[in-house]
Amino acid sequence: MPSVAVKLYSVFFKFLLKHRLQNRIQTPFDDNNPYGVTSRPEESVAAANPSFTDGVATKDIHIDPFTSLSVRIFLPETSLTGTGSESQSQSRVRVRAPTKSSDLDSGSAAIDANLNPLRRNSYGAIGTAVAVTPSEQTRRSSYGGNSDAENLNLKQESGAYRGYSPSIENYLQICRKLPIILQFHGGGFVSGSNDSVANDFFCRRIAKLCDVIVIAVGYRLAPENRYPAAFEDGLKVLNWLGKQANLAECSKSLGNTRGGGGAEIRRSDVHRHIADSFGASMVEPWLAAHGDPSRCVLLGVSCGANIADYVTRKAVEAGKLLDPVKVVAQVLMYPFFIGSVPTHSEIRLANSYFYDKAMCLLAWKLFLPEEEFSLDHPAANPLIPGREPPLKHMPPTLTVVAEHDWMRDRAIAYSEELRKVNVDAPVLEYKDAVHEFATLDMLLKTPQAQACAEDIAIWVKKYISLRGHEFSY
Fold first, then answer.
1. 4-81+177-464 has which CATH code?
2. Where is each Alpha/beta hydrolase fold-3 domain found (predicted)?
3. Active site residue 31
4. Measured in whole angstroms, how far is the alpha carbon of residue 25 from the centre of its chain?
């Protein structure tokens, strides 16, 4: 059974949550306002920190000018450094830059890890250092209009990581790419945020354990924006990720033209300047430098698991249209599923801890439009007939459930249906655990929450590791 402290906090939590949900039901909202909100005033927010103070740097980006949709990027410091034998072997590698006059500075530029061990290479090459001259240290960063190699600038004087221009990759084919996890927070579609203290802590933990870039999605909340706003926001972020990858490739192609000769380069000088300025303003350096969208995992928490499952389905339907983004797996943590025919756990645990069934019904009424409200809505029940695409096309799916969660049986049933069509869909059930036991603020530092994150990392690494390098991706 949960501890006495958890039981007491659950009583207080449910009282406060019920009061907030009822207030939102009684408060009129303009459903025609598409901008919406992604965070509530009562939410404790953690500020973004672009320096690697605890091993992970973070950055907030507002990616849609027409709505409040935003993302927070979590970049682990391992994208820049490494340890062990791999680091030692990399440190002995010398890479010679191109020698043409249009390339790095004048003449040839050598890169040797032994020359300057204190300056790390922004490409994430493990343990590799870059020899720089004093004049190079003062050049502009990749946020400027020039996307040439001179924009290589790892950190500001304050220590904040700035990234670099992706076109430099032409000269140094030693970039270490990390897989990407798209994370959707919980909160019953009406609360929570991607920059809350609890979600920030959880995403940092996942980024470090899995050694991945985590992109936490700040989707629009209900009732200001009802279904399908949150689901569409999740799909927008996946498409944005693909756009970022394609823009980075375009920037690299522009860099390749600099190696050409004479008249052709002179004729394209003006056009290149315009293209470089456009690319520098659009490309997100952290993703261009260190993100590998071909190894993308979707991770959803509670209602975020519903969003993750929807986005995964749309990714399956899109197929190669999403290239180079490829969803290789998804993780559903205590998904917010429900249905008109109650399961055994929905009857036995209807008054369970933190999120009981009555309050979750209020959340569904706030999220679904009144004319569409049904417990068998496609957003609520994953097992309704005719839901597309067929389950056999779904990627590997890990489901996390808690013993004292009334939603557990339907999540397990969904996993069983996936296994029937030969999809790798294991279930991790945690004894004496409650809904959101690994992501709720007061439970984040418990041994059970840590163990859950580690178990997720072990499973996810099977699908994000490069073939033949399962433990050194």
1. 3.40.50.1820
2. 181-438
3. no
4. 31
Tell me how long the chain is: 473
Are residues 234 and 47 in contact, defined by beta-carbon separation less than 8 angstroms?
A: no
How do the domains of the chain map onto residue ranges? 4-81+177-464
Map tokens 């020359």 to a residue.
115
Q: Mark whether 435 is an active-site residue.
A: yes
Q: Name the pLDDT band for 191 (thresholds 50, 70, 90).
A: very high
216, β-bridge pairs: 72, 183
Residue 291 backbone phi and psi in degrees, to 5: -95, 140
Average pLDDT over residues 223-252: 92
- Mean pLDDT for the chain? 80
Phi, psi of 71 (to 5 degrees): -135, 155
CA distance 450 to 438: 7
The token duo for 72 is 């927070």
Asked if residues 170 and 255 have their Cβ atoms less than 8 Å apart, the reply is: yes
Looking at the DSSP bridge assignments, the partners of residue 427 are 399
Q: What is the DSSP string of 39-107?
A: S-TTS-BPPP--S-SSSEEEEEEE--TTS--EEEEEEEGGGT---HHHHHHHHT-EEEPP-STTSSSSS
Task: Write out pLDDT tens, residues 275-328.
Answer: 444 444 578 999 988 999 999 999 999 999 999 999 999 999 999 999 999 999
| Gap between the Cα atoms of 458 and 462, Å rounded | 7
pTM: 0.80
- The whole-angstrom separation of Cα 239 and Cα 311 is 10
- Evaluated on CA atoms 395, 432, 216, 373, the torsion sign reads positive
Catalytic residue among 79, 405, 409, 415: 405
One-letter amino acid at 240 equals W
Question: Of 167, 251, 302, 415, which residue is the catalytic one?
Answer: 302
User: Among candidates 404, 11, 343, 20, which has minimal Cα distance to 188?
Assistant: 20
CA distances from 23 to 44, 158, 270 (A): 20, 44, 58
Q: What is the distance between the alpha carbons of residues 229 and 189, in angstroms, rounded to a whole number? A: 10
CB contact at 8 A, 183 and 219:
no
415 is catalytic: no
Give 336's contacts (C-beta < 8 A, 6+ positions apart): 186, 188, 189, 302, 303, 305, 306, 360, 380, 407
